[in-house]
Amino acid sequence: MISHINQEKEAIIFMHFMLKFFSYLILAYFVFQIFGRKRIVGIVILLISIAFSIVTVINHIINNKSFIYILLVFVVDALPIVLALILFLYVTRAYKRETVRKTKTLKLKNIHSTIYPSKYMMMISIFGSVISGMMFILLILNYFFEFTEVNQSLSIIIFILAILVCIFSVYQWFVTSQIDYNRIVLYVGKQKEKCYMFNIKSLTRPFEILDVYSNDDFIIDELGTIKVYSGIRLIEKNYIYWIATSQNLEIKDRAFELKTDVFKSYIYDIPKYKKIKIKLILDHGKYREKNK
């Protein structure tokens, strides 16, 4: 009888732990997506939640609760959020164990946006679908077996968030899987005379342009993105950069291939420091601007 009771308590603690873990992970992932994949928003939310949980633990210490009780409170309340933060950091690559390629440090740096390769975005989409699916299962199990008490309003909020994350993840996976070309397009020369392309479709982690190419003697300016559609389907996503130099610079990195330029007419007059977001339609083998 006592063993059966202990097993029930362990199941309740486990379910409470898992519900809290997945709830905060889904919340962090959701705000990460709706705020344009800004990791800092999700990180701040999780850190604030951890702080509140630690305050609860400290209150129990002040009230002279037993060590076992304090440890249990930490495991049930604080630890799930800490683990959610760690997994969130890992999945969104807030820290990188290694860069895509070793680079030198530029003497003069300018800020570049993070590039998200299509394969990485598909992995993130699958991750979101799996997490939201597991959350559905836990909520259903808890509803029928009542492992732990969850406020009805909170359950509804978690359920809605899980649905939104699942729908968004499936949609993002579908859109990303349609992309045929995912490239860095690097122009060299005052008049953008040379055009180099680097296929990044198979890369599996976010990076910046300086992770794949840098030169101590030149500054790389970020111009923006050019997306190409075939009907409503996104088939190309190109990240555009420019080394505005009058010198005869050749990029000898084999990953960057010298190509015939197909976008120059759309960006020829774009000045430095002005970010572009151009959408083109591929119609019978020719590009034209969308909505024109």
Topology (SSEs and partners):
Layout: H1 2-34, H2 39-62, H3 67-91, H4 118-145, H5 152-177, E1 181-188, E2 194-199, H6 209-212, E3 221-230, E4 233-243, E5 257-258, H7 264-267, E6 276-283, E7 286-289
Parallel strand pairs: 1-4, 3-6
Antiparallel strand pairs: 1-2, 2-5, 3-4, 6-7
Protein model, in words:
The protein is α/β, with parallel strands linked by helices and 292 residues long. The protein folds into two domains: 1-95; 99-292, no CATH class. Helix content is 49%, strand content 17%. The protein is built from seven helices and seven strands, in the order αααααββαβββαββ. It has helices at 2-34, 39-62, 67-91, 118-145, 152-177, 209-212, 264-267, and strands spanning 181-188, 194-199, 221-230, 233-243, 257-258, 276-283, 286-289. It has a seven-stranded mixed β-sheet, with no helix packed on it. α1 (2-34) packs antiparallel against α2, α1 (2-34) packs across α5 (152-177) and α2 packs antiparallel against α3.
